[in-house]
Specification:
Radius of gyration: 27 Å
Strand content: 15-25%
CATH architecture of the largest domain: 2-Layer Sandwich
Number of helices: 25
Shape: globular
CATH topology of the largest domain: D-amino Acid Aminotransferase, Chain A, domain 1
Number of strands: 24
CATH class of the largest domain: Alpha Beta
Oligomer: single chain
Distance between the termini: 47 Å
Helix content: 25-40%
Length: 706
């Protein structure tokens, strides 16, 4: 894998795109289908690489970045539950340096010195399925999975069958209490379950986590009741009154209500104690009787937790210290070249199937042509000691660093004599167009654009994906099925919304083809019609514009407010100059690379025509109002200079929590500039534009009334 420090900006953007797409597939497999395509260590290492690239190139951060996603949408067949308090994921660290940096970041955020007390609770990270339990008057009334963090699956009937989940609480719990924890299965129970399944000729599970998740997410609660599920409580969501002043005391109180809590949790006063707990649990994990994949560290003081608040998908006050990944040796059977929606020629290794960390691996990423040749794409320096990869080689596979595994080494002593160096194609394998590699780019791209069927098909798959239009019954498989269909071809997004009309004119109707039938064809057309109304952010994301992921799409939707305003601004904008360009790059989180990609998409004739043909079929909904309802809700704020009573990060977090938008530059759309000592050009620009400028004391007063 090309080192992050050697990536060029273009290579970094391409890598972030690749990681975002692969992670989305991994999330759907893990959270939605209980059928992971990778180990947790592999997934975590992927997210780590993504975070390292974002740290080096913050302006390239994608909205659909792994750092902006939680779980996956609820599965069909279950009712849905909207979490009153979102169920977020945790940020990860992987070594001692990461733990110390986590502690340092919190101290900087809170303005605490290195010797100031800052206690943590350390507890094992159970490898299971997250579950939220709602109690009213001490009685269990609802249970829900994490889902996508905002909406989960209603599994109340199934949760009632788990012996370790109390139906009625002991003691004096709050009137409303949402307890959060992990459903899991012990090693012994997992082995017994698989033995019974094998004896009955039923499907066996790959690992205890899959077994636990699949058991809880049964449509028949009697099936769940027959499975040996267990539960650990570790947190809470919606409560009518505080549980305690500290995380440690809150855990003790949950135990008093009748919930199992981990007996291995420890209260730690120093980072060295956190690392000692990690070493102890890592050394003894094989003897626990259930799977853990790391240790979670949480700030003990709940008042400090509240001050620290949340990022987009993770709390600032907690982190997961993950255990290392696993490796195995296997044979490289073939090297395939796939073409992505932006034209990237992505090499993929086909492997002799091998089990790594409990998961069967049959393919691995090869990144780019330089990686295959044994050199860095950025510097030309050797990697793997300069050893290239050839079909027939014995290779070392690591389930870390990528959603699909990666090859990290090759055994030259076992190389077959007939193995020859791999020749990377210079033409697209799908359309025959030249595949060029621009200076400074790590990847080779097809120049065929939308004329390349591979790119057109991949764009369509993105368009109908869950976080885009999410048309029931029309996913990636249907895109492949209809793309070259002679009677009802779907080659671009607008074609989806004309399918019913075109089908009515066909001599052979869809109801008589592809095993559809009259009812299923009608259901498909009904599902398509239901997606003619689409939120603006989803539409922007669905267009598949390079570098524009889900989070960026949301930023753009909130900033422009309507499709008409967004389309007009992109049409009028010129890369690198003019008021529209300045307004676009002034959006906090939208850098020049993303902005250029947006503007170019609306100025390229073929891509613009595809967009223009789509829009008349849609009713585009404006973004939701900001969460806040006070004086700051909906206002655009710019911070400049040095804040003395809180850090810039805390100020931004509190502004966004109050419903404000935080911008990086001052424009005519700015409502308020908060200026501290050292403020300069932004204050002068605000004065020129007549934008109100306040100091930190006035800002804190506004926050108090927000």
């Amino acid at each position: 894998m090309q080192p992050v420090e050697s990536l060029t900006e273009e290579a970094a953007a391409a890598e972030l795109l690749r990681l975002a797409r692969l992670l989305a597939e991994a999330d759907a497999a893990y959270h939605g289908a209980d059928a992971p395509v990778m180990s947790d260590a592999e997934y975590d290492a992927l997210k780590r690489r993504n975070a390292e690239i974002e740290a080096r190139f913050p302006h390239l951060r994608r909205p659909d970045s792994p750092s902006g996603q939680v779980g996956a949408p609820p599965a069909e067949g279950f009712g849905t539950v909207r979490h009153r308090v979102p169920m977020l994921s945790l940020a990860n660290v992987f070594d001692e340096a990461g733990v110390r940096e986590f502690d340092d970041q919190l101290r900087r955020f809170l303005r605490l010195g290195p010797e100031a007390p800052l206690a943590y609770v350390a507890e094992p990270k159970i490898d299971g399925l997250s579950l939220s339990l709602r109690y009213e008057g001490g009685v269990l009334v609802q249970a829900a999975t994490r889902g996508d963090g905002t909406t989960g699956e209603d599994v109340t009937a199934n949760a009632r069958t788990v012996a370790e989940i109390p139906a009625t609480l002991s003691g004096t719990p709050p009137d409303i209490l949402e307890v959060r924890g992990e459903i899991y299965m012990s090693h012994a129970d997992f082995a017994a379950l698989n033995a019974r399944a094998a004896a009955e000729g039923s499907k066996v599970f790959a690992n205890p986590r899959n077994a636990a998740a699949g058991s809880l997410r049964q449509l028949d609660p009697q099936v769940t009741a027959s499975r040996p599920l267990r539960f650990f409580a570790y947190s809470w969501g919606d409560v009518s009154e505080p549980l305690a002043d500290t995380q440690w005391d809150a855990l003790r109180r949950l135990a008093g209500f009748g919930f199992p809590v981990s007996p291995l949790a420890r209260l730690c006063e120093r980072v060295d104690q956190l690392l000692a707990v990690y070493a102890e649990l890592e050394a003894g994990r094989a003897d626990l009787g259930y799977d853990i994949d790391g240790v979670v560290y949480k700030v003990n003081d709940l008042g400090l937790q509240q001050r620290l608040g949340f990022r987009h998908t993770t709390p600032r006050w907690a982190v997961a210290h993950k255990f290392p990944a696993e490796t195995a040796w296997t044979r490289l059977l073939a090297i395939d070249i796939n073409v992505g929606r932006t034209g990237t020629l992505a090499p993929l290794a086909r492997l002799e199937p091998i089990t790594v960390g409990g998961v069967v691996v049959s393919n691995a990423t090869l990144h780019n042509e330089d990686y295959i040749a044994g050199r860095s794409a950025a510097t030309g320096e050797p990697i793997r000691g300069g050893r290239d990869l050839r079909v027939g080689d014995w290779v070392k596979v690591r389930r870390a660093g990528d959603v699909i595994p990666q090859i990290v080494d090759v055994d030259l002593s076992r190389r077959p004599p007939e193995a020859v160096p791999f020749v990377f194609p210079t033409v697209c394998p799908r359309c025959g167009s030249d595949a060029v590699r621009e200076p400074g780019d790590a990847v080779r791209r097809c120049t065929g654009g939308l004329g390349c069927p591979a790119q057109a098909m991949e764009k369509l798959k993105h368009f109908v994906s869950r976080k885009a239009f999410d048309i029931e019954g029309f996913g990636a498989k249907q895109v492949e099925m209809f793309f070259d269909d002679p009677l009802l071809p779907v080659r671009e997004p607008a074609d989806i919304f004309t399918m019913e009309e075109r089908d009515a004119r066909n001599p052979e109707r869809l109801r008589d083809r592809f095993r559809y039938g009259e009812q299923s064809a009608a259901n498909l057309f009904r599902a398509i019609a239901s997606r003619r109304r689409i939120p603006l952010a989803r539409l922007i994301f669905a267009l598949g514009i390079r570098h524009v992921g889900e989070a960026t799409a949301q930023l753009l939707a909130r900033h422009y407010g309507s499709w008409e305003a967004f389309e007009s601004a992109m049409t009028a904008a010129t890369v690198g100059e003019g008021p529209e360009w300045e307004a676009l790059t002034g959006i906090d989180g939208v850098g020049p690379v993303v902005a250029a990609s947006l503007v170019n998409a609306f100025h390229q004739e073929a891509e613009r025509a595809v967009i223009d043909r789509l829009i008349p079929h849609l009713t585009i909904l404006p973004p939701n109002r900001p969460v806040g309802t006070g004086t700051l809700a909906g206002r655009t704020i710019v911070f400049t200079g040095t804040l003395e009573r809180m850090t810039r990060a805390e100020a931004k977090a509190r502004a966004e929590a109050a419903g404000a938008r935080v911008a990086g530059s001052v424009s005519a759309r700015t409502d308020l500039v908060v200026a501290g000592p050292g403020a300069g050009s932004k204050v002068r620009e605000a004065e020129r534009l007549g934008v109100r400028v306040i100091d930190e004391a006035e800002w804190l007063d506004l926050l108090g009334g927000a």
